[in-house]
Design goal:
about 650 residues; about 10% strand; single chain; 4 domains; globular; 19 helices; six-stranded antiparallel β-sheet; five-stranded mixed β-sheet; alpha+beta
Length: about 650
C-alpha cells in the first residue's frame, strides 16, 4: 500500500500544480498582468517526476504490490526492459506522456519568461497547462497506474514478448510521444493568437520553431518504429499501413504541410487562416491517434488493450476541433491577407502545391483508417482497407513530392524564370539522367522507379546547391557560424535525408526477392546471389527465455534466426528473425518450419520433410539500410533547424 499511496500523492500534486496554473494564467489574462506559469509548471513537473520515480522503483525492484508491475514485469525481466516496462501498457504510457507534457510546459514558460506578461504567451501557457491537466486527470481517474494488487504474487506476468525482444523499445515510444506532445505548442500559440486577437503579430516563427522540434522527434520515432517492426515481426517489411501506424503518420503529414506553409506567412504574410487551421488540425490528429491506440477500437499489434478511456479521448478531440473552428470563424475577417500568390510556379505557389499534396494524402489515410470503423458501426460486419488502397495513392503522390522538392528550393519568390531555373538545375538533371541510363543498362527498367530515382537525384542536387551557397557565404565572411546562420541548412539536410530514405524504400520494396528454402544440416544453396547454408541447431535456455536457434551461414557470416518462448505467465512464443545487413543489401532470415513428425523447438512442423531439416525464409532487400540512415538525417536536420533559429533570434 505504501507505493500506491506515494504514487497517488505525487499524481495529485501534479494535477494540483497544473490546475492551479490554469487558474493563475486565466486571472493573469483577465487582469492583464504577468502570470506564474513557470512556477506552477515546476510544481506539476515535480509531481510527475515523483510519480515516475515510484513506478520505476517498483519495476526495477519487481515489487508486485502494484497491479501494473505484476502484469508487466517479472523477477527475470532484464533491467532495460524493466525500465521500459513503464510504457509497455496503457497506464504507464500515460505517465511518460504527462512527463513529456510537463517538461514541455516548463521549457516553454522558461524560454518566454521575459515575455510572460505578453497576452499571447499567457494564453499559450494557459492552453498548455489545460492540456496537461486533462491527461493528468486520466491517471487520477480511469487510468490509475498505482492500483494496489490485492493478491499476493511471487512472480509477475512479464512484458509482452515483442516488448522485450529489441532495445528500440527504449527509443521509439518516447520519441513518438515527444512528437505528439510537441505539437501542443503550435496549437497553444494558435489558440492564444485567436483568443487575444493578436493576429497581425509575428508569432508564426515562434509556432514553427517548436513545430520543427516536434516534427523531428515524430519523424525519427516513426522511422525507429519501422526499424523495430522490421527486426522483430518476422515478415521482412517495415510498414504495413496498420491503423496505429497510420495514426502516427497523420499528424506527421499535416505537420509537414504546416512547417512549409509558415515560411510563406513569414516571407509574404500569406496563408494565416490556413496555417492556424493546420496547427489546430495537427494537434487534433495527435489526440485522435491517442484515441485509436488507447480505446481498443482498433485491433493492432501496436495498440494497447481495451480501456474505458475511449469516450474521454474522443470527447477531448471534439473539444479541440470545436475550439479551433469556433475561434477561426470568430477572427476570420481579421486574418485575411490582402495579397495573393503572384505566379503558380513561384516558390509560394509550389508551397501551395506541397500543402495540397500533404493534406490530401492525410485525408486519404484518415478515410482508409476510419472507414472500417464506420462500416462496422453501421452494418455490424467487418471490412478491411488493405495495403493496395494506401499504396495506390502513396506512390504517385511521393513522385509529386520529389518533384516539388527538386524545384521549390531553387525558384524565386513571387515570380518564375524558366531560364534561371534551368541554370540552377541542369547539372543535377544531367547527373540524374546519367544515373538513370546506367540503371537501364543494368536491366533496371521499371518506369515508376526510374522516374523516382531521377527526381530524387535532382532534389538532392537542389539541397546540395543550397548548402553549398551557405558554405561559400560562411567562407567569404570568414566565420563558420555563418553556415549555421544561413536560412535553410537544417531544411536542406532534411531534404537530403528524405531523398536517401526514398531511395532506400524504392529499391528495397521494388527489388526485394523472397524465397523459402529447405536445408539439411551442412547443406548449402544460393538465393538471389547469396550463399546460404545451415550448420545445425543451437538451444538457449535461461530465466528469461527458451529459444531454438538455427546457425545459418550468409556468405562469410553466421546469423541466428530462432523461435523463442519467453517465460512468465504469458508464455508467448515468437519468431525471432536474423538480419545480415550491409550498406548495399540486407539478407533477412527467418526460421519458418522444421521437418519430421514432432518438434520441441516451438517451430511449425512440416511433414513430408526429413527429420532435422528446416525451412528457412530468405529475403534479399537492396539498399534497405539507407532507409534508416535517411531517417536519422531527417532528425539531425530538424535539430539543426531548431537550434539555428534559437541561436539567430535570441537577444
Amino acid at each position: 500500500m505504501t507505493l500506491t499511496w506515494l504514487g497517488r500523492v505525487a499524481l495529485y500534486l501534479a494535477l494540483a500544480g497544473a490546475l492551479a496554473g490554469v487558474v493563475d494564467q486565466a486571472l493573469a489574462l483577465r487582469r492583464r498582468r504577468a502570470g506564474h506559469g513557470l512556477r506552477y509548471g515546476v510544481i506539476a513537473l515535480t509531481g510527475v517526476v515523483a510519480a515516475i520515480a515510484v513506478m520505476q522503483y517498483a519495476l526495477i525492484t519487481h515489487n508486485f504490490s502494484l497491479a501494473y508491475v505484476a502484469e508487466n514485469n517479472a523477477t527475470f525481466t532484464p533491467l532495460l526492459y524493466s525500465i521500459t516496462g513503464m510504457w509497455s501498457a496503457l497506464e504507464g504510457s500515460l505517465l511518460l506522456w504527462v512527463l513529456l507534457q510537463a517538461g514541455l510546459v516548463v521549457a516553454v514558460t522558461w524560454y518566454y519568461r521575459r515575455h510572460r506578461d505578453h497576452p499571447v504567451v499567457s494564453a499559450a501557457t494557459l492552453v498548455l497547462l489545460a492540456v496537461q491537466s486533462f491527461f493528468t486527470l486520466l491517471m487520477v481517474g480511469p487510468a490509475d497506474p498505482f492500483v494496489h494488487n490485492a493478491t499476493r504474487v511471487l512472480q509477475g506476468a512479464g512484458p509482452n514478448a515483442l516488448l522485450q525482444d529489441n532495445p528500440l523499445v527504449a527509443a521509439h515510444p518516447p520519441l513518438l510521444y515527444a512528437g505528439f506532445v510537441g505539437f501542443s505548442v503550435p496549437f497553444a500559440f494558435a489558440i492564444a493568437v485567436l483568443l487575444t486577437g493578436r493576429v497581425n503579430e509575428s508569432w508564426a516563427l515562434e509556432q514553427r520553431r517548436w513545430s520543427v522540434l516536434a516534427w523531428g522527434a515524430l519523424s525519427v520515432g516513426i522511422v525507429l518504429g519501422a526499424w523495430w517492426s522490421y527486426q522483430v515481426l518476422g515478415w521482412g517489411g517495415f510498414w504495413g499501413w496498420d491503423p496505429v501506424e497510420n495514426a502516427a503518420l497523420l499528424p506527421w503529414l499535416t505537420g509537414t504541410a504546416y512547417i512549409h506553409s509558415v515560411i510563406v506567412q513569414d516571407r509574404r504574410g500569406l496563408f494565416r487562416v490556413w496555417n492556424l487551421s493546420l496547427a489546430v488540425a495537427t494537434f487534433a490528429l495527435t489526440v485522435l491517434g491517442t484515441f485509436f491506440t488507447r480505446s481498443g477500437v482498433l485491433v493492432s499489434v501496436h495498440a494497447f488493450s481495451s480501456s474505458t478511456l475511449g469516450p474521454l479521448l474522443i470527447g477531448f478531440f471534439f473539444v479541440v476541433v470545436a475550439l479551433g473552428a469556433g475561434l477561426l470563424a470568430w477572427r476570420g475577417d481579421r486574418l485575411r491577407a490582402p495579397l495573393g500568390v503572384d505566379h503558380p510556379l513561384s516558390r509560394e505557389g509550389l508551397f501551395v502545391a506541397n500543402n495540397i499534396v500533404f493534406v490530401g494524402f492525410a485525408l486519404v489515410v484518415l478515410l482508409g483508417t476510419i472507414f472500417p470503423l464506420l462500416y462496422q458501426a453501421v452494418n455490424g460486419s467487418q471490412f478491411t482497407v488493405g495495403t493496395p488502397y494506401f499504396a495506390s495513392i502513396a506512390a504517385p503522390l511521393s513522385v509529386v513530392l520529389l518533384a516539388l522538392m527538386a524545384l521549390a528550393p531553387l525558384v524565386s519568390w513571387r515570380s518564375a524564370d524558366a531560364r534561371v531555373l534551368w541554370t540552377r538545375t541542369r547539372t543535377s538533371a544531367w547527373v540524374a539522367l546519367g544515373v538513370v541510363v546506367l540503371l537501364v543498362t543494368r536491366h533496371v527498367t521499371r518506369y515508376p522507379e526510374l522516374v523516382a530515382v531521377f527526381l530524387a537525384l535532382i532534389a538532392a542536387g537542389a539541397a546540395l546547391r543550397t548548402l553549398r551557397g551557405a558554405f561559400l557565404a560562411a567562407r567569404r565572411r570568414g566565420s563558420w557560424r555563418e553556415m549555421v546562420r544561413a536560412p535553410s541548412p537544417g531544411g536542406m539536410v532534411v531534404h537530403l535525408g528524405i531523398v536517401v530514405l526514398a531511395l532506400g524504400i524504392v529499391s528495397s520494396t521494388t527489388y526485394a526477392q523472397r524465397h523459402e528454402v529447405t536445408l539439411a544440416t551442412g547443406q548449402r544453396t544460393v538465393v538471389d546471389g547469396q550463399l546460404i547454408g545451415f550448420d545445425g541447431f543451437h538451444h538457449v535456455r535461461n530465466a528469461l527465455e527458451s529459444a531454438t536457434q538455427l546457425r545459418v551461414r550468409v556468405g562469410g557470416h553466421t546469423v541466428y534466426p530462432a523461435v523463442t518462448t519467453f517465460n512468465g505467465r504469458h508464455g508467448q512464443t515468437v519468431g525471432t528473425p536474423a538480419i545480415d545487413s550491409r550498406l548495399w543489401r540486407d539478407v533477412y532470415v527467418t526460421f519458418d518450419a522444421v521437418g519430421g513428425t514432432g518438434s520441441t523447438s516451438g517451430a511449425q512442423i512440416q511433414t513430408g520433410l526429413p527429420a532435422g531439416s528446416v525451412v528457412v525464409g530468405v529475403t534479399v532487400e537492396p539498399l534497405l539500410a539507407w532507409l534508416w540512415i535517411g531517417g536519422l538525417m531527417v532528425g539531425a536536420g530538424a535539430a539543426l533547424s531548431f537550434f539555428r533559429r534559437r541561436y539567430v533570434e535570441a537577444p
